[in-house]
Specification:
four-stranded antiparallel β-sheet; eight-stranded antiparallel β-sheet; 22 strands; alpha+beta
Amino acid sequence: MTPEENDLLCRVEGDAPMGRIMRGHWIAACLSEEVAEPDGAPVKVRLLGEDLVVFRDSRGSLGVLGEYCSHRRASLVFARNEECGLRCLYHGWKFDVDGNIVEMASEPQTSAITERVKHKAYPAREAGGFVWTCLGPAAEMRPFEPPAFAPKPDVRVSATKVRVRCNWAQVLEGQIDSAHSSTLHSSDMVPAPVDGAKATEVNWLRPSTDKAPRLQVDRTGYGFRYAAIRRPIQNAATTEYVRSTVFVAPATALIPPNNKYNVANINVPRDDTSTAFYFIAWGHPHNTPDTETWRKFLCQRVGVDLDEKYRPFRNVDNSFWQDRNAMKAGNFTGITGFPNQDVAMWVTMGPIADRTLDRLGASDLAVVEFRKQMVEAARDFAAGKAAIGTGANAISPKVCSFQAIVPKTVDWKAYEAKPVWETPGPVLEPSYDV
């Protein structure tokens, strides 16, 4: 990549084309649990370089407002949440969820300021355990649709959240890089003679020892899907182990599931050099781990692994709590929790990785496609074309990731991928039982 292309891919603040693309999509502002209580404290969030507050008013309505009071720019993070609005502590100006000024304690009742001034406010929706907002122009706002990981109201969604001190694209590239999991996560995603990916209470099992998958990409209007094809442990002469990941532009990945639940992640750019990373398990309530179990499994619990603002205690200065004795005993990384292993790699690449220095190989095919597609999307958008993944190019609810051992005669692009609580089967081999 050239330096100009690297900036096009990574920069999201101000008028940067990539940030403007993201403003045309509904993005995750925070977890619903962060604003679960009506009249609770406003939550500070940073999205695409903007400082905002999210709150739930006394009627249960959600609001996403600019952090700084329209009067004298005091922070509304400290505001009183009372009677359907936020009241600034400085002079008592009060704003509802739509940004209307409903009271001004410091001004006469005859003041016309309420007619002239409206506080910055963005729409808010709630689905899948998240609060969503759209920061683009109201006239161009897309209708809200539930995320791909919450297709039905009764789906259980468990999510972790961690603030990562690097650019969003570094995080996303890790999520669509199937090859790294066979090395970096080899002590957590363990090869075993099983008939597909399995989830246990302590790790994930995989039916392959192949660390060099063959990658194939299928570009789409919403992004792309790709397959990482490995030799299975059993029946390698006649079958292949396929893991197909879906990249949903601009910043979501649907990761291949295991036998119990589906997996996804969202990468929300806070600004050019920091990201809110959400790692999600979703599916049937009986099989999908509850939120606390999921966070414990991943070693991403507030108060244990993260502070109250979701910043990790593991960092460069304390070597991410790496245990060298555990490494000598057989653990590959010495870092507990496989998302924490990812975070260590992303952060050590710098706030914005210099991609001009990369030396890419065959296993980086999906990363190359991501870079090409999103740089192209940024240039197209700057030239006046529609944002990637919008309009007729929006992703279909039927699209999902999958993993399966299939006969070598089966084309993975034709495989009938379904969430794990539905029974999948190869389109070209209907009698084959996955």
